[in-house]
Amino acid sequence: MKKPLAVLMFAAAASAAGAASAADIVANPKAAPNKIEQCIGCHGIPEYKTAFPEVYQVPMIGGQSAKYIEAALQAYKKGDRKHPQMTPTARVLSDQDIADIAAYYAQQSSATPNK
Ligand code: HEC
């Protein structure tokens, strides 16, 4: 009778620790500038179109909500959303990078697009 209880308590402790580590990510927009150098090349120019592998318009991300940006990057990272440029870009970002970048772009307004 004692053993199963110990296993159960261990499992509960482990899952509590797992939940804590996900909540540990605190978005820090000040850490973003050196993580977004590559993003600026495509997202930094209003109305910008890039020409590889085909001509497509790059959406504005400055001023969008952090939740939206974070969800979009996570979707590319997990493969739920696919794009030849964004999939490899998002794959190399950590969850912390994504939180920092989302917070950074969310602080911008349409008057200061994507800087
Ligand atoms: C080579 C060009 C390129 C680079 C570099 C790039 N992006 Fe993108 N990004 C795009 C294009 C094109 C789309 C639209 C793709 C689509 O339709 O799914 C996009 C979409 C997005 C979206 C979703 C926008 C929306 O309205 O749904 C986010 C968020 C985003 N990029 C963030 C980033 C971040 C952050 C970086 C840098 C870490 C980055 N991108 C680097 C071209 C680029």
From TrEMBL:
Is ATP-binding among the key words of this record? no
Annotated ranges, domain Cytochrome c? 13-109
Q: Which UniProt keywords apply?
A: Electron transport, Heme, Iron, Metal-binding, Signal, Transport
Question: Known InterPro entries for this protein?
Answer: Cyt_c-like_dom, Cyt_c-like_dom_sf, Cytochrome_c_Oxidase_Subunit
**Stored PROSITE patterns:** CYTC
Question: Where does the signal peptide begin and end?
Answer: 1-22
Matching PANTHER family:
CBB3-TYPE CYTOCHROME C OXIDASE SUBUNIT FIXP, CYTOCHROME C4
Record protein name field: C-type cytochrome
Q: Which organism is it from?
A: Massilia norwichensis
